[in-house]
TrEMBL record:
GO terms for molecular function: methyltransferase activity. InterPro entries: Ppm1/Ppm2/Tcmp (IPR007213), SAM-dependent_MTases_sf (IPR029063). It holds the Pfam family LCM. This is Methyltransferase. It comes from Legionella massiliensis. PANTHER family: S-ADENOSYL-L-METHIONINE-DEPENDENT METHYLTRANSFERASE YKTD-RELATED, S-ADENOSYL-L-METHIONINE-DEPENDENT METHYLTRANSFERASES SUPERFAMILY PROTEIN. One of its GO terms (biological process) is methylation. The keyword Acetylation does not apply. Keywords: Methyltransferase, Transferase. The keyword Transmembrane helix does not apply. Gene3D superfamilies: Vaccinia Virus protein VP39.
């Protein structure tokens, strides 16, 4: 990531969410709350938000944008939207099962923490992200949408680890049941940093820990990329200094998480997205393939209580 500018991929994902919110499947995949908050953030960070809003509503320009997507990475827009919806539903289930803290690492312009903070006043919702990305988002939300249980922690995670960010924070209770979300982040880290992130989280949270994260599949040629991605995608990521560095096969990941001490590991693939959201559809939707969700759970007793 360019350290002097907000994340380019975070802005791209925000545009994708807003685009999909105007599709026929939009109300099913993008909640009204998410669409409203995403628009508020867009109004703050986009240079010409009204023009962008027109483009994603206009039938002609929508068709052109979908044609361009089909050339660059077919199905990417719907993949991102369904990925986010699936994570939202997992999050709701975990919260309703007793989780009292939600931590989103590298949240970008995602609205999940803000929505959960509004729905569940008893849950402490926290976001950690680079200050250059976070300050614009925070400014947009504070104008009209600031639940008292929503917290922003600014940190450059390329310079300091998550342990350093959290260990001295008074707003987080390391003994409470916690859900950590790391969506669209780990593929930008090298393997050592990924391993350190997980080991830090395990060491920090002494009781119940759930982790939901996305990962890219490592292909046979060791290429880390969506299967349908054009070479132009790699060029753009390189230009923005946001290259994909880490990928892993789903079987290898399951073994890795088990070895770390996670007792329950579930991998959610493209087919599960389709089954969950489009089971009654007349035709199977096209989703980009190569990125999956992992939900891993660990339950340990605090040594003080043993």
């Amino acid at each position: 990531m360019n350290k002097e500018k907000p994340s380019a991929t975070a802005a791209l994902i925000l545009k994708v969410v807003l685009f999909e919110s105007k599709s026929d499947a939009g109300p099913l995949i993008v909640s009204p709350e998410s669409a409203q908050l995403s628009q508020a953030i867009a109004n703050e960070i986009f240079k010409y938000p009204k023009i962008f809003s027109f483009l994603i509503k206009n039938k002609l320009t929508r068709g052109l944008l979908l044609f361009i997507e089909s050339l660059l990475n077919k199905g990417f827009i719907l993949h991102v939207a369904t990925r986010k919806k699936y994570i939202e539903e997992l999050t709701i289930g975990i919260i309703e099962n007793g989780c009292t803290q939600l931590l989103n690492i590298g949240a970008g312009y995602d609205t999940l923490c803000a929505i959960m903070a509004s729905r569940y006043s008893e849950v402490r919702c926290m976001e950690v992200d680079h200050p250059n990305t976070q300050k614009q988002k925070q400014a947009a939300l504070l104008k009209s949408y600031a639940p008292s249980n929503l917290y922003f922690l600014s940190a450059d995670l390329s310079k300091i680890g998550i342990r350093q960010v959290l260990k001295d924070q008074t707003i987080i209770d390391l003994n409470k049941k916690t859900l950590v979300i790391i969506e669209g982040v780990l593929m930008y880290l090298n393997e050592d940093d990924v391993n350190k992130c997980f080991s830090d989280l395990i060491d920090l949270f002494s009781n119940n820990l759930d982790v939901i994260f996305t990962f890219l599949d490592k292909r046979a040629n060791n290429d880390i990329q969506f299967k349908s991605a054009s070479p132009l995608i790699k060029w753009w990521l390189n230009k923005k200094k946001e290259n994909f560095l880490w990928g892993i096969g789903k079987d290898e990941l399951t073994m890795k998480m088990n070895n770390l001490g996670f007792t329950k590991v579930a991998i959610i693939t493209k087919q599960q997205f389709i089954t969950t959201f489009f089971d009654n559809s007349n035709s199977e939707p096209v989703l980009a393939e190569g990125e999956m969700i992992c939900h891993a759970s660990m339950s340990r007793r605090n040594s003080k209580n043993d």
